[in-house]
Amino acid sequence: MAPHWQETSLQTQAGPMPARLYGVHPSKGAVPLILHLHGGAFTGGTLECGAYVAALLAEAGAVVVSADYPLACERPFPFALTAAFGALAALYGRRAEFAGRNAPLYVAGEESGGNLAAGLAMMARDQQAPPLAGQILISPMLDPSLATASLRAAEAGTCGCKWADGWQTYLGSPEKAAHPYAAPLASSRLQGLPPALVVSAQDCPMRDESARYACALEKAGVATELHILPGPTHWPEGISAPPEKPESWAGTMRTLFSRFFETSRPRRRKPAPAVL
Q1: Domain 6-264 classified CATH 3.40.50.1820?
Q2: Which residues cross the membrane (predicted)?
């Protein structure tokens, strides 16, 4: 069954960004609100490609806005990231409309969308707004060197490989690979980032860079969960569109998302007892 969604948009400096809205506004209180970014190696992908993950996030208890960010074929780094940051700020301003007053805000993405989500977490930290409750990175593309064992095992990284070509198109020029927002795995300053849930799969080419980033976050004092799912999952292609029947890992992902929302959600302080 196809996931249910509604059309919406988020206003950015580059104009309105089309998006899909998943989940239901709570009748009272607030639920996690997520800006979700689909995969596609920076040069492809559509809102339909992100539909399965967005629906799983919504089924885990969140309201999800999956954004159709600009692709690198038209504008290289940092255009897509800047536009996505504008969308994140707009979403924060509309959180009461989408998910309830004081809804905790998250970023999430898979593959190239995971790269953008990690970059957004850094930007929000550095600009001290909007406040993020967490980041969900699903087999994110984080290292343009393409030299990990998991990529070599997938016979990826050579000329003509979609990830190599995607990185080249996204960066535009080699020196941009040194920018932490473009290649988060190379960042030497990860302190102060929001809690992270990093998920990959044993048979995914991005497995090793996902694990390395989770380790780096943890060393920097960031509350981090890493989960490597058993194969076969056929990731990242296996998460790029909603299948006709649920995948074997879908239930695990919903559980991971739900638990992460519970552990990362900011707790409201109880008022101090009155002094008589």
Answers
A1: yes
A2: none
How far apart CA 36 and CA 137 sit, in angstroms, is 10
Query: What are the extents of the domains in the chain?
Result: 6-264
CA distance 97 to 78: 29
* CA gap 199, 227 in Å, rounded: 5
Q: Are 166 and 115 in contact (CB under 8 A)?
A: no
Q: What digits encode the pLDDT tens for the residues 81-106?
A: 999 999 999 999 999 999 999 999 99
CA distances from 134 to 152, 163, 197 (A): 31, 26, 8
Q: What DSSP assignment string belongs to 107-173? A: EEEETHHHHHHHHHHHHHHHHT-S--SEEEEES----TT---HHHHHTT-SSTT-HHHHHHHHHHSS
Q: What is the pTM of this model?
A: 0.94
